[in-house]
Amino acid sequence: MDAAVGRPSRRADALSRERIIAAAITILDTEGERALTFRTLAATLATGPGAIYWHVANKKELLAAATDALVAEATGAGPTRATPHERIRRVALGLFDTIDAHPWIGSQLSQEPWQLASMRIVEALGRPLDDLEVPAERHFHVVTALASYVLGAAAQNAANARHAPRDTDRDTALSAIARQWAELDEAEFPFVRRIAAQLPGHDDREQFLAGIDLVLGGITRE
Fold first, then answer.
1. Where are the beta strands (DSSP E) in the chain?
2. Which DSSP state fits 60?
3. Inter-residue contact 120 to 75 (CB < 8 Å)
4. Quick check: 200 and 175 in contact, CB under 8 A?
């Protein structure tokens, strides 16, 4: 093999799949999914698109790989002595924080619901069910309900953050919404008016974990 032929091979070897995925995640986080093209990725990595294709076949595979890398980190092994409830809460909160930091993951998981990253989530949330003595015939319904809450709540939280006005901080925005709630017709919306004062200043992670505890309570209730 001459030097001219050898260069692409050496470049492909130096350009690892992990480096490509890391660069893709940076582009997705800073510029969004539309900005992620192999041309942009090649420019970021100072290489040619052909070297990237050596490792990743297309954008769909790249998005799945980037999602899987972050989900794998979020659902990784935790403390060995944790209780089943603690294990589920840890995985759930890890996913919540990951989707908050990388909002595009939520849409990617919804577009490709049975990709490897989704199976990691099902596995991580499902394993503790045996220790909770959930009957095997209920496992599918229980774990899919739990995963639906985790991903739905996390994606909604990330969407709320993205759509908030850039020149308004969170507390100011929530206070404005709370005032609107408090001014609703008392006969038609008595409950909403009562909880309006609790909206400003609430902690999103605490709110999320409260939902997890409600789901877990339902799972373990006889």
1. none
2. H
3. yes
4. yes
- The model's pLDDT over 181-217, given as tens digits with 9 standing for 90+, comes to 999 999 999 999 999 999 998 999 999 999 999 999 8
Residue 12: pLDDT above 80?
Answer: no
This prediction's pTM: 0.86
- CA-to-CA distance for 101 and 170, rounded, in angstroms? 16
To the nearest 10°, report the CA torsion of 64, 67, 68, 72.
Answer: 180
- Tell me the per-residue pLDDT of 31-72, one tens digit each, with 9 for 90 and over: 999 999 999 999 999 999 899 999 999 999 999 999 999 999
Q: How far apart are CA 110 and CA 151, in angstroms?
A: 9
Q: Is 57 exposed, middle or buried (0-12, 13-18, 19+ CB in 10 A)?
A: exposed
Contact 89, 212 (CB under 8 A): yes
Give me the count of residues in the chain.
222
The neighbour count for residue 95, using CB atoms within 10 Å, is 27
CB burial readout 136-167, b (16+ within 10 A) else e: eeeeeebbeebbebbbebbbebbeeeeeeeee
121, exposed or middle or buried, with CB in 10 Å at 0-12, 13-18, 19+? buried
Report the alpha-carbon angle 131-136-141, nearest 5.
100
**Contact assessment for residue 15 and residue 55, using Cβ atoms and an 8 Å cutoff:** yes
3-state secondary structure at position 167:
coil
